[in-house]
Amino acid sequence: MDAFHYLLGGFATAMQWQNLIFAFVGVLIGTVVGVLPGIGPISGVALLIPVTASLTGGLPPEDAATSAIILLAGVYYGAMYGGSTTSILLNTPGESSSVVTVLDGYPMAKQGRAGVALAIAAIGSFVAGIVSLIGLVFLAEPLSNVALKLSPADEFSLMILGLCALSGLAGKSVTKALIMTVFGLLLATIGMDNVSGVARFTFDMPELYSGLEFLTIAVGVFALGEVFKTILEKDVNDGEIAKISRILPTKQDLKESAGPIIRGSLVGFFKGIVPGSGATLASFLAYLLEKKISKNPEKFGKGAIAGVAAPESANNAASGGAMIPLLTLGIPGTGTTAVLMGALIMYNVQPGPLLFDEHPSIAWGLIASMFIGNLMLLILNMPLVKVFAKLIETPPKYLIPMIVAISIFGVYAVRVSVFDLVLLLICGVVGYFLAKNDFPMAPLVLGLVLGPMIENNLRRALTTSNGDFSIFIEKPVSLIFLIIAVLWITVPLIMKMRGKKVVVNVEG
Amino acid sequence: MSKAFDRYASLLFLVLGAAFVIGSGNISASAYGSNVGPNIFPLGLGSLLIVLSLRLFYETFKYKQEEKKSGPALDYKRFLIVLVAALLYALLLEEIGYVVSTFLFLLVGFQTMQKGKWLSSVLISGGFSFGVYFLYVNVLDGTLPGLPTWLGF
């Protein structure tokens, strides 16, 4: 009953008026981010970290961290709701995890059932959000209790596993993903070494003593990278937007989608817990599952309501599920959770086993706020879906320069340094060209976030073993993590060599 | 996937890896109370990066050059204008203040994206730059470079 007790405490935190506002603003912006073409959840969250930091500036540290993370998580799962809107109305997914929704969502819209499709997507997302939260509540405590028993060597290997999980499946080339991971870890070594106090790779530049700021890099590669992509590739849609008439689904619609929603939620949730697999893959799997067990699979692709309900539920459940390894183990499994983790660290909150002990109000406040946020999203999305649909028409002419301006404002407000602004622009350009050539950005950012922790654990472990590296394979738990990490990288490679098709995770 | 890009990138990462390895030679190899120093992590990672970039370089000989995608050409002109404007914006932010620099950047940005509609461009740029400044500085008590002193305010 302990979890229930803590959850009540979490609700007390989440129901504070400022946190209700933060949750509301978060899910609202998230929906907008999901609807607007050109910015996805990861760039939305990155863009808002500095803005949130300035909003919460007046609060005590613990409250500021709670409110900020409530808002940012709201953006994350809110964007998952919003992503369906453009898929259904415009035949263009707002973010990668809504790619499958296009298959049946747009045909439904052409049949004049756009409103129903949007409503089912919202209901499915809501159910999925609740399912994954219940899982979060019950798994969080036991998982973090196990994680508390880990030694430095075990923790080092666990983080290596996290890095391999995200690299092994990200992008088209494992080599490139690994290069980005290692490069991110190397960037993290710039600055003052926090064990010995020695300056590393700073070239006597005072700006570099505190290291490269995670925030600057994340906003640069994700938000500006996306903006540059939109400008360079003239990535604007000029398609016809489908009309929305009826919104409320009929009893028949609900009956047909109940099963897909439940199955999609479960598929998504378990997919989400596994680091590196992500929401896009979850929605694909849920769609394939529905098609396989359906009595009339020929309907899929022609406007089957199950083809909207299942993937939309799955991608939301996956984003909830991805919070579990982040909060309990400190291992972000997706690009967006890596960015969220960076935000937490910015507030001096270390996600991981100790989070539930040291900052219960943050951990449980966040979980409780996700219940509230999902409810807000359902209420927002059902009647207001027409209003959000209007947002699709926002001219990129105004949107693109404003995103640049918000990035500059955000980074300057937090860092107050022109050096960081220039670094931000460089990251944007480099990020665009690397991402365009299949160098995934999420492992880079994850390496940057995990770098200091991995190094600390490595050195703590090596210090106890007098520099003997065999400590990592002598400890059984550490050995198991390392073996899984190696398998994670090699199994897809071997399968590829044998000519099997390997599904890769395209999302950040 | 571009073969040429991957080749240049692999060479670049090779150089970066080597730089980190050489650079870590100047960092002390031990720390107080421990024989594991701050150099070990960058040294190991740098070596790993060298190996990986060699691997990528080798891979570029194996895969076939994909046929050029027949999409529209990249719009470098607009991109460069926005990029240079953003760079000037960043460099001038402290000199001419947040409101003026943001206003100018947005105006240039809007007009670069699509010419015309001057009135709405001016109104939106002005509204955004004043709005953000007012909200952040007056409501949230943050600090941003104000209007330049030579304007007489």
From TrEMBL, chain A:
Residues 20-446 form the DUF112 domain. The keyword Hydrolase does not apply. Keywords: Membrane, Transmembrane, Transmembrane helix. This is Tripartite tricarboxylate transporter permease. InterPro entries: DUF112_TM (IPR002823). The keyword Transmembrane applies. PANTHER family: TRICARBOXYLIC TRANSPORT PROTEIN. The chain crosses the membrane at residues 20-49, 69-90, 116-140, 208-228, 269-289, 326-349, 361-381, 402-435, 477-495.
Automatic annotation (TrEMBL), chain B:
Keywords: Membrane, Transmembrane, Transmembrane helix. It holds the Pfam family TctB. The chain crosses the membrane at residues 39-58, 79-106, 118-137. Residues 9-145 form the DUF1468 domain. It comes from the Bacteria. This is Tripartite tricarboxylate transporter TctB family protein. It comes from Brevibacillus brevis. The lineage of its organism: Bacteria, Bacillati, Bacillota, Bacilli, Bacillales.
